[in-house]
């Protein structure tokens, strides 16, 4: 008689599976809680203690860890020595293993999780059984995912046995599962022990969805999320309407979210190719949108717009006049939904607006960049300016109004690809120069876009000026105040150029490269 061992924490669907096994004369063996559930459902089930000859001990820390179990799992059926060994010891083969693990992830995601509770939720016996069965995959069908129960039931009921490929696929799934489980434990303990950049990086991501393609149609792609990805991240966003998100949509929406989360006041960000083409802040979301729109009415076309307040009817109406790929906001009013859902292709996403770098389960938020043969990983750039960072280096002090505009432009320039220059006026960008190989080139693009609006505007630069040319160009364009990190050996030249033009310039001592 064949044997199945069932030991599951998540008991979804397990009664139906056990019924099918029993229907086909397969003996079911189970551990405490699973045994009780199956017995209560009227299913004949053997207690694991009758197999091991031991009671479950130490609050379940040891229940299946026994040669009578592992011999039955690991014996290669075609190996005479193996079979003689287990037979001599009165160990019976186990042909099916259905196991899922203690809920470690759910435990560490509980607010204020207790360390002892987390440790107790590290499953030992379950992964051991899964790995043993998966190693012996040709002889043991191993099921870790309740989504695979239907196929096992079908195999039994319809006489379509699991194929070699299916059994190998089930085993591969097990090793992905146990590897991810251990990765999560190691990440948690890495955080608890305060190790910032461990000697070995063990991370795990879960698939959210396959994507139609990557950055270009000839590239395959999928979207994965961090376990417990928080609600305020793009992975935690909820899609209310529209076509499936694309690779570029997700990347752009992420960029828009990162910028809009910089602001506490009502703010709107329009994004093209991960760079902001318009950012506006105001007392209400409609005005903020109009500022972001007017910043660059050309580039916003086909763009992604993030708002940090509920989208109301008036703002929705205005946005519906344009072709946009995505609108992302904490919420949409009913009227706004009625207006925007008329646009079939427009994607509507809700995301909570907790500032970036908010609650994280597995430690400080980081950014990663895949390079050939490796991975660059760094802390997220969440450095905010304090009063102590602002150093006026020119003869002229910025006015209060200029300082406000400088701080606004500084928040934006941090999110623009380097070399980055942002030209801004009253709480809106008017020119953005992104991703240029030289700084003055980025400035020229920003001035050209700003046109006459550059006169009397302010300028932010993500890194220092290597020479005075950008300040001279700014003076010619009519810029009145500049914010930049400082730190060039030629700072004195830039300061002199600013003084000559009557420009007020502040150094922050903070650089915001973004590549
Ligand atoms: N210690 C052991 O020998 C052991 N054997 C199985 N488990 C786990 O116990 C859980 C099922 O327990 P129960 O059937 O009592 O509800 C499963 O998640 C299984 O992975 C064990 N628990 C933890 O390590």
From TrEMBL:
Q: Name one Pfam family in it.
A: AICARFT_IMPCHas
Task: Give the matching InterPro entries.
Answer: AICAR_Tfase_dup_dom_sf (IPR024051), Cytidine_deaminase-like (IPR016193), MGS-like_dom (IPR011607), MGS-like_dom_sf (IPR036914), PurH-like (IPR002695)
GO terms for MF: IMP cyclohydrolase activity; phosphoribosylaminoimidazolecarboxamide formyltransferase activity
Q: Which UniProt keywords apply?
A: Hydrolase, Multifunctional enzyme, Purine biosynthesis, Transferase
**What EC number(s) is this enzyme filed under?**
2.1.2.3, 3.5.4.10
Q: Which reaction does it catalyse?
A: IMP + H2O = 5-formamido-1-(5-phospho-D-ribosyl)imidazole-4-carboxamide; (6R)-10-formyltetrahydrofolate + 5-amino-1-(5-phospho-beta-D-ribosyl)imidazole-4-carboxamide = 5-formamido-1-(5-phospho-D-ribosyl)imidazole-4-carboxamide + (6S)-5,6,7,8-tetrahydrofolate
Q: Does the keyword Repeat apply?
A: no
Which pathway does it take part in? Purine metabolism; IMP biosynthesis via de novo pathway; IMP from 5-formamido-1-(5-phospho-D-ribosyl)imidazole-4-carboxamide: step 1/1; Purine metabolism; IMP biosynthesis via de novo pathway; 5-formamido-1-(5-phospho-D-ribosyl)imidazole-4-carboxamide from 5-amino-1-(5-phospho-D-ribosyl)imidazole-4-carboxamide (10-formyl THF route): step 1/1
Reply yes or no: does the keyword Transferase apply.
yes
Enumerate the SMART domains for this protein. Answer: AICARFT_IMPCHas, MGS
Q: Where does the MGS-like domain start and stop, copy by copy?
A: 1-144
Give the domain section of the comments.
The IMP cyclohydrolase activity resides in the N-terminal region.
**Family the entry assigns:** Belongs to the PurH family.
What is the protein named? Bifunctional purine biosynthesis protein PurH
């Amino acid at each position: 008689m064949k044997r199945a061992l069932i030991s599951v924490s998540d008991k979804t669907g397990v009664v139906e599976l056990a019924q099918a096994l029993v229907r086909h004369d397969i003996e079911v063996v189970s551990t405490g809680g699973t045994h009780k559930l199956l017995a209560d459902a009227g299913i004949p089930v053997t207690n694991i203690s009758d197999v091991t000859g031991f009671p479950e001990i130490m609050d379940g820390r040891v229940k299946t860890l026994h040669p009578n179990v592992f011999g039955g799992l690991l014996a290669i059926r075609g190996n005479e020595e193996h079979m003689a060994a287990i037979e001599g010891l009165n160990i019976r083969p186990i042909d099916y293993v259905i196991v899922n693990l203690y809920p470690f992830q759910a435990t560490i995601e509980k607010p204020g999780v207790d360390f002892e509770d987390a440790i107790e939720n590290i499953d030992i016996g379950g992964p051991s059984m899964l790995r043993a069965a998966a190693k012996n995959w040709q002889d043991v069908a191993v099921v870790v995912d309740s989504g695979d129960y239907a196929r096992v039931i079908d195999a039994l009921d319809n006489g379509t046995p699991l194929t070699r490929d299916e059994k190998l696929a089930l085993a591969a799934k097990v090793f992905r599962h146990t590897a991810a489980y251990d990765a999560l434990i190691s990440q948690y303990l890495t955080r608890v022990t305060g190790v910032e950049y461990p000697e070995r990086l063990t991370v795990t991501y879960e698939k959210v969805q396959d994507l139609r393609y990557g950055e270009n149609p000839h590239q395959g792609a999928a979207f994965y999320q961090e376990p417990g990805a928080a609600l305020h991240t793009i992975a935690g966003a909820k899609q209310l309407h529209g076509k499936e998100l694309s690779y570029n949509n997700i990347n752009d929406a992420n960029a828009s979210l990162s910028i809009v989360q910089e602001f506490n006041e009502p703010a709107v960000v329009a994004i093209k190719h991960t760079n902001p083409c318009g950012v506006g802040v105001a007392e209400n979301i409609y005005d903020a949108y109009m500022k972001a729109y007017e910043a660059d009415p050309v580039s916003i076309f086909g763009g992604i717009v993030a708002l940090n307040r509920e989208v109301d009817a008036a703002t929705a109406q205005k946005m519906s006049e344009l072709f946009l790929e995505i609108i992302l906001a904490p919420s949409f009013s009913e009227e706004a939904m009625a207006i925007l859902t008329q646009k079939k292709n427009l994607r509507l996403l809700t995301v909570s607006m907790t500032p970036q770098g908010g609650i994280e389960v597995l430690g400080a938020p980081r950014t990663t960049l895949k390079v050939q043969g490796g991975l660059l990983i760094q802390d997220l750039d969440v450095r905010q300016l304090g009063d102590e960072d602002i150093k006026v280096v020119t003869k002229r002090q910025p006015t209060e109004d200029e300082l406000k505009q400088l701080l606004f432009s500084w928040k934006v320039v941090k999110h623009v690809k380097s070399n980055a220059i942002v030209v801004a006026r009253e709480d809106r960008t008017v020119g953005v120069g992104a991703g240029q190989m030289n700084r003055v080139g980025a400035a020229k693009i920003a001035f050209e876009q700003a046109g006459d609006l550059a006169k009397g505007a302010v300028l932010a630069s993500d890194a220092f000026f290597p020479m005075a040319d950008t300040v001279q160009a700014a003076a010619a364009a009519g810029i009145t105040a500049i914010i930049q990190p400082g730190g060039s050996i030629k700072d004195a030249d830039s300061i002199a150029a600013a003084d000559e033009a009557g420009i007020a310039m502040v150094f922050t001592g903070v650089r915001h490269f973004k590549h």
